[in-house]
Amino acid sequence: MTDVVVVARARRRPSTALILTAVLLGGAALALGVGPAGVPVRGVVLELLDALPFVNVESGLGERQAAVLWQLRLPRVVLGAIVGGALAIAGGAYQGVFRNPLADPYLLGVAAGAGLGATLAIIGGVASTSPVLPLAAFGGGAVAVVVTYALARLGGSVRTTATLILAGVAVASFFTAAQTFAQQLASDTVREVFAWILGRLTTAGWAEVRLVTPFVLVAMLVLIAHRRHLDVLAVGETEASALGLEVSRVRFWIVLSATLAAAAAVSVAGLIGFVGIVVPHSVRLLAGSSYRAILPLSLLGGAAFLLFADVVARTVLAPSELPIGVVTAFVGAPFFAVILARAGTAR
Amino acid sequence: MRFRLSVLVVMLTLLATACGGDGSGAATTSAATTSAPPPTTSSSPPTTTTAATTEGPTTTSTSDAAAFPATIEFGGAAITIPERPDRIAALSATHVEMLYAIGAGEQLIAGDLFSNYPAKASALEKLDSFNLSVEAVVALEPDLVILSFDPVEAIPALGAVGIPTMLLGTATDLEAVYAQIDALGAATGNVEGAQALIRFTQAEITDIVAAAGDAGAGATYYHETDPFSFYTPNSSSFIGGLYALLGMDNIADAAPDELGSGFPQLSPEFIITADPDYVFLAGVGETAETLAARDGWDTLSALDSGRVFVLDPDVASRWGPRVVDLLRSIADAVTGSIS
Amino acid sequence: MSGIRLADVTAGYGGAPVVRGVDAAAAPGEWLALIGPNGAGKSTLLKVAAGLVPSEGRVSIDGVAIDTMSRRRLSRTVAYVPQIPVIPPGTTVSDYVLLGRNPHIGYWRTESHEDLEVARTEIARLDLAGLADRPIESLSGGERQRAVLARALTQRPAVLLLDEPTTGLDLGHQQQFLESVDELRARLGICVIAAVHDLTLGALYADRLVMLAAGRIVAAGAPREVLTAERVRRVYGADVAMLRDEAGRPIVVPQRNGGQPTKVSTSDPTK
User: Fold this and answer.
1) Which residue among B208, B318, C4, C234 is least crowded, i.e. fewest CB within 10 A of its CB?
2) What is the chain C residue with the closest CA to A3?
């Protein structure tokens, strides 16, 4: 006999949330302690403690080491968490709203569109710390997702995994080419283009974090508020309408918010791919397929994933630094292949 | 449940990493807060300044040791160096050469992966200027960092931890080279060394051009740096400007270059049809033999007349003091002093 | 409880209309069966009644036109069960059934205790309690149909629209399903409009039949009036004999060669 409690709690798995939070904190700790600048771990801990109100301890760190911690590492960790969480929750939301397991900001061309928007804004003279920048990125990303969607519908159905991804690849290629062209016109070197296309989390103080946080926060709140609606959408447009959902309106707000989150992330970190695939699907494996769990857990998981990826990027070829998109692609591309194979056999 | 747990464990294991280095130190810090997402032009660093638009540097004093604190304006940005730097990291092989040539060699602690000239430069700490790790730079505790490009926005990050940086960019002509040497002289307290280097370079170039006479006047040439895609410097590029001093004509000038990059893309057909009088090979490993071995290239008259010359790839790709050597190689080829 | 009325409904997708000028109504507690050949427009008519397809003409619930209602309000009154429901993989039966409470839950809210209670009731009613935690794709056809019905019932509708709900079910499960629906409409006073494939079963359960062909109503009324051999031959192109059971309900019997030579007795149709 099924209890009401079981019906209610079936989808809520506090254990997964705890695990992911622990992983995230572990990743943050690792990221803060690791790096060629050689800031001793004990010093890091003491310095952080000292920053708490009413706590006063001597960390023993020199001025430069403290600057490395506060101006380079800590903002980088926070930025990595925000960017990773934004990309992951956007991916989860796209998967729900398009009912396609391969939807992800990178693969849908949203990231490339956002990149073009940001590039054009910079060429047009927008300051790199101006809030206009993420908005310009959002404009580009929004155009990209609309074009991808329209192309996919032309080619068949949005739900067919192949059609949507093909449309996304076409759109991404186009926008990336346009962006590269624009950058070269503005006399950027190939190196700069390359660095952008593979993503990086360089921080100089807290400017990037301040820039991206409001947008990601708003988008995140809207998406989390729509978790239940994504579960209703899972039964398709017709049945969801029959169940009382205003499908177009809900889809609009979800796509808008997911695009905003992804675009803000791209505007500050370049094109980092596959986070929106790896994380939501891993979360699904752990916590079930309800978006009530997937969305918030993807936030945590995405943050943790990108932090670990950044640690790898910074240490595997030390003292050189790999572009972080390379690390996420190494993990994400095989993941993508597995999902594609499963989706292919399932339908 | 067990499957899900094992997936989690595998994920964690895959994402676990080793730890990094060790060190200690202290320095002055100052807060800079600007940062920029990707596209920046390679010659204007994004610092907050009251910028003058002069290309050349201006300094507040002229002798060496007493020249600090110095404010140097370059490329639209100003940098203040509090005292004579003696831990300089130069992330560009060209600038490493310049620094040694102006007498700042003792002040250098780090170069980039390709800094191999002069020979003692190979003993410097090596930093990867392409995949730059800001922390790796900071770990060396430099008091001045010199870059020729900044794809990962390292300059604001270095500024945030109080390390002065100079973005010198690449030079498009000799005047720019002299301006960079001047700037380095002022920044490192080697103004007289810089002036001497400039005078020497100018004098040598003048002598080489005079000695060559009109041996090169009107001769056509093809300068190859890219034997794969044939992106070729035309006469508006830095190296093209050197050839122009000898009155030579670049076959790449006839190729379209809408973006004005100075490096239009040629094709084997184009090159063979243009049949230049001289061919200069600056690609690594390329020789007259390898050139002749390419399909259809053996018809080049330059091969028959023995006017295919190999240039040192390092020298041909940098714009430092060895510009003189480069020009001399070309002049010697053209006057027939070498075969 | 409410009744539903469709007046002069003309609807289609893109160019040509699929139903034309259809009038139909079901009073509270009444069971109306839609019959007709493939492509006659039965599914479309149901979707129009559910407000999922726009139409000229008027669909009203207790006199109120449905296009004046918000989707939420409509879904609290009308529940639609499609012929082939989408099965979202990984969803448990209880979560799936709970989706039916969506029109009752505020946009920004989540399920209340009452919502959970309603779901539990319907799960129990349709004998799904033992399957509640299983993923819905692991259910058999019959169990799945019950789950979809349970979901529809959690909407607490006054009108239940079923599109060929016994598709793919064996005879036993077909009967089981239809008995459940019959019991519900008796107990709760729900009116039912069901598109049915099997004419005999339709006649067995429905109060009234509406026969559609090429989008128009060909006949409407009590089953015995609507189902004649002649009409079935004309509309379906099928060769049948019409029998009656003790209650006088028509039994449609397919035959070969114009009905020779088998003699069938009305009291024992198994011969």
Assistant:
1) C234
2) C120
